TrEMBL record:
Gene Ontology molecular functions: ubiquitin-protein transferase inhibitor activity
Descriptive protein name: Glomulin isoform X2
One Gene Ontology CC term in the entry: cytoplasm
Ranges that cross the membrane: none
Superkingdom classification of source: Eukaryota
Pfam families (UniProt xref): Kinetochor_Ybp2
UniProt cross-references to InterPro entries, sorted A to Z: Glomulin/ALF4 (IPR019516), YAP-bd/ALF4/Glomulin (IPR013877)
Amino acid sequence: MAIEELRAITQRCQALQEDAFNGEDFDLFQSAGQRCLEEGHIAQALEIFQDEKNKLCNPKELLLGLLEQVEDACGEDISPVISLLLQPLQTVLMKLGDKKAYSVGLALSTLVNRISTLPVPYSKDQIQQDPHGLCRCCSSLVTFAKPFVAEVVKRQEHSKELKSELLKFCFSCLKYPLLRAHLDQIPKDTEEHSLWLFATDILDFLWLLGEPLSKVFLQQGSTPHALDEQDLSQDDVLYCEDSRACLAYLLFVHYIGMNYFPLVFSPSFLLQCNMTHIEMLLKRMEESMLSKGLDLFENCLLRVEDNSLLHQYLEIKSFLSVPEDLVKVMILCPIEHLRKKSFKILQLYIDKLNAEGKYKLFRCLLKTSNHSGTEGYIIQNIKNQIDLSLKTGYGRKWFSGQRLIPLLHTVLSLPEGVETDLLQNSDRIMAALNLLRYLIIKDPEYENQTEIWTELSRIERDFLKPLRMGLNMSKAHYEAKISSTKQDRRESHIKTICTITAGGKTLPNMTPEMQLQVLQSALFTFDLIESVLVRVEELIEVKGKVMTEEQIGSNEDI
């Protein structure tokens, strides 16, 4: 039996002098202890380890032995092994006196590395049940680190190396597990949950160790052009991008540690400082990262007043790249609630910019989005800003007159002329036609505040006529396809299968009935576009006649 073998080896080793204890004895002791853990004799093994007679040993050798046990643990054994060995590890480290800094750092990094292999609980049920023991390990880690933090607080000038190791530990914990933890899944009535308390304790540690959260937040982090760690300062290595992003998320989304943060910064400055974190998080693929980036962006924007964010901020790269990343999330993210949230936040961002900022952002997104639905959405926003300008005068400098013309040229055009794929660009085309219809109705020719009447001949040449030709060609093509499909179906009494390939991949087979539905849906879209186009053409004709009659009347008066 493993426990009896461990007792026998322990008793034999107790009789040896320290210099007579060799590597073979240690291997036997370690092997017997490992078998005890594997067979579940944890309590008996701990009793043997805690025997006063067995506490007389070389602390450094025992430390290495205990850490080896931690490193060897895997799978379901990680949590119980760490919980079992933390107290002996703490005792050994406290025996090392003033020279414990390196050993404490080694122990903490070993523990964090092992814990980082445990999956972070995802759902509310997983967070409450903690199936892999990650939450229990986090609670135990805090208890383990507290006496060393207290020592630094008590002896600041004599514990600089220990402080450095503890700071590394805190920032490692921010990176994992806290950056990947789903704190928003923790029920609001259970703020005493171990993950929430762990986040609070880590930020408390930073404060106690004399590391102001404002300093960490304002730190720019390491440059991507640095070749290796020798090119970086100690702060650059310490304040890694992931850790700082997590700190910002805890501060501004959950307000953890906010009592340590000075309330002297303007909302726009906080947004500016957080944009690098938001950009980094939105480029990650994991749901936990994306959701944190969206939450952080939303909370920063909610602090900013509408129409107050100056256009000069768009000269900062992240203020343009972040909305572009939002568009990518809206289009490509497979998770529906994140797509919807990114859409909501993009509108919130637009609302916060001043008129010139909105104008420049619209031009940028129209060039970079390459997605008809997004372009249609931006065009709708342009229409709203023009409407606001005509009704109240707000933003008139940018959404009327000469400055509006380049924007209208971009909107009221077909990307590839007559050959433009009208189905693929239907959202953009419908939004553009609705904008043109609105301008013709709301901005009469005698006022011409938007210069729409000045540019009408060009719009007809570059947009309306090519669109009419494209519609006629597309409708004729699809009507012929429908007739052909119906004829084939009548001639063949067997349901033939239509195979479609997209992007080199074969899609599920389509029956002729399904193919007909797709073709008829396309034809319906063309009819919808044509109905708005006809209305625009009628309005132009009617307005033109009215103006001609008015001009004739005025000439007769003369």
